[in-house]
Amino acid sequence: MRGLILVIDAFGMGAAPDADDYGDQGAHTLRSVCASGSDGTMAAWPTLLGLGLGNCAALTGPPVEGCPPVGDPLASCGVMKQKSKGKDTTTGHWELAGVVMEQGFHVFPAEFPSFPPDLVIRFEDATGHRLLGNKAASGTQIIEELGPIQQSDGGLICYTSADSVFQVAAHEQVVPIEELYRCCRSARKICDEYNIARVIARPFEGSTGSYSRTAGRRDYSIELPSPTMLDILQESGVETVGIGKIGDIFGHQGLTHSLPDKGNAKCMARLKSALQQGSGVDQMIFVNLIDTDMLYGHRRDSLGYYRAIEAIDRELPDIMDLLGYEDFLIISADHGCDPGFRGTDHTREFVPLIFYQPNRNPVDLGIRESFTDVAATVCKLFGTTHYCGSPFLSA
Question: What is the pLDDT of residues 154-163, one digit of tens each?
């Protein structure tokens, strides 16, 4: 048996019941994206529509224009609430894999100075570089603002956001990328004491007025508090494969293979190649498609987001054709990032739950109380058990 979890990063289905606690009441990523690209007509996502994406969205409110429910979806459809505190990548992916964070990660304040003086001193002592920035900011904007200073003195641009992150940016020709990674590993040790979810290396290139981030991004996640679905499957003899930033998110724990391809196109190509080659053993493949979040959600580019979903949709028929009779595909998300909402941060939303298996008749999965139901279902299908979550299908 082969299982596949495809996480369309930040593909929210409407404000969660507790969205007001996060300042996100009214957010609806899917609605904003459809309004931009479909122009009142049917969204150019025939495969996702046929699987029942509109059926998922209709569970959280009125049907989304351009993405209506269908009478006979090809897949079992539902939506999921997030039980963990937070709305970030780490929290969402960990919960999909069976880990609930009862206490949210620490978030730094947005205003300068965001970081405690002790953290700044220890970071500068450990890295040998001056800390620049020290505030919440858009990554592209702060690089334009401080890039010239960073190039002149070799400091490190450090910034945060509404998520639990400590991001470190440097020009590759001023701070070589391996040196940036070393500094981020030092920051990771320091940030452990502050319960920060991720330290992120953000290398960039170019010159004043035309800086651009490179593909050398690397995420350093805090250590997992408990085993995940990946650990349980691996211990049961299932080959586990992470594609994209999955390896970084889970600290490479529980993964037989980590394939850190960058960008949706490369991740989808890697996935198809893995399915075509096969492995001869039971296999679980976990894929993150980051572009919808990083390139379009945070930058509030609704049309770019729409086209990214269109590109994913074009690839799905080939992937579904490569599934065997007992293989299965789960399509979901880790949080929202509504490009039509205020600010540039993630949004607390329902996420889609699409389950496709060639040998199974679709059912209504309804509104699930936790993302951990994915982990519980996957483990059950592979003949093992998970300590958290409620399976939504029988084995």
Answer: 999 999 988 8
Contact between residue 14 and residue 32 where contact means Cβ atoms under 8 Å apart: no
Residue type for 346, please?
H
Q: Are strands 2-8 and 283-289 parallel, antiparallel or unpaired?
A: parallel
Mean pLDDT of 187-204: 96
Radius of gyration of the chain (CA): 21
Asked if residue 395 has pLDDT above 70, the reply is no
Question: Structural domain of residue 202, as residue ranges?
Answer: 117-221
Are 171 and 243 within one domain? no
Give CA–CA dist 318/187, Å, rounded: 42
User: pLDDT tens-digit profile of 44-75?
Assistant: 999 999 999 999 999 999 999 999 999 999 99
pTM: 0.90
The H or E element that residue 153 is part of is helix 139-153
For 52-88, give the DSSP string: THHHHHHTSSSPBTTB---SS-SSEEEEE---SS--S
Residue 102: pLDDT over 90: no
Dist CA 334 CA 10 (whole Å): 6
111-123 b/e (C-beta count within 10 Å ≥ 16 → b): eeebbeeebbebb
Question: What DSSP designation does 254 have?
Answer: T
Helix (H) or strand (E) holding 205: strand 198-205
CATH number, domain with residue 135:
3.30.70.1250
